[in-house]
Design brief:
With 184 residues, this protein is α+β, with helices and mostly antiparallel strands. It is 18% helix and 45% strand. The protein is built from three helices and nine strands, in the order βββαβββααβββ. A nine-stranded antiparallel sheet has the order 1-2-3-4-5-6-7-8-9. The longest helix has 15 residues, at 131-145. The two termini are 30 Å apart. The relative contact order is 0.14.
């Protein structure tokens, strides 16, 4: 991967808890992917960024038992800003992610998305969404988004959720997420 510009930040978070919190963030501009997971969107990501706070004492060793203890002691990731500008797709989101009993991500982000119709087409082309489901998904999301704004672009404001290794946008399942395999 190559980026024209990269900005990374890491600091102690706002917590007074033992072990503290970690605040991290960064942005990459004009990120060139060696291979696009969604070829229809291309290999150039105009901008990708995030600001987050990881709560609780983060284990130095990310083995299953340590990650489970972090989760059990209230460990979470507060996403204060998540942005993506990739071809016609534009995403802005905030929310919280934790780990479920299987140590897989779960959470909900409040998302504002433009270019969702093109993104669904890209998911179909990549084989991540069945073509037979795409029309219904595009129609439902277009209804949820409402009429386009003055710029002619529809903006969908909906929850983006991950649960049981499935990704949902509003009530529509977008696909499955590969499991995180934590070392034993």
């Amino acid at each position: 991967m190559r980026a024209d510009s990269l900005d990374l930040r890491l600091a102690d978070g706002p917590s007074d808890r033992p072990g503290g919190d970690i605040a991290a963030g960064g942005d990459a501009w004009r990120l060139t992917l060696p291979v696009s997971p969604l070829p229809a969107l291309g290999t150039l990501v105009e901008q990708a960024g995030a600001d987050l706070v990881v709560s609780g004492p983060v284990p130095a060793d990310l083995r299953q038992t340590n990650v489970a203890a972090w989760r059990d002691n209230g460990g979470s990731v507060e996403i204060e800003r998540l942005t993506l500008r990739w071809g016609p797709l534009s995403v802005e989101a905030t929310g919280t992610v934790t780990l479920d009993e299987a140590l897989q991500p779960r959470g909900t982000l409040n998302a504002r998305i433009q270019g969702f119709v093109e993104a669904i087409d890209a998911l179909v082309e990549a084989g991540a969404v069945a073509a037979k489901d795409a029309g219904l998904a595009k129609g439902a999301l277009t209804l949820l988004a409402g009429p386009p704004g003055p710029d002619g672009v529809a903006t969908l404001t909906a929850p983006l959720a991950v649960a049981n290794r499935r990704l949902f946008l509003g009530p529509i399942q977008l696909g499955e997420i590969q499991p995180i395999v934590w070392p034993r």
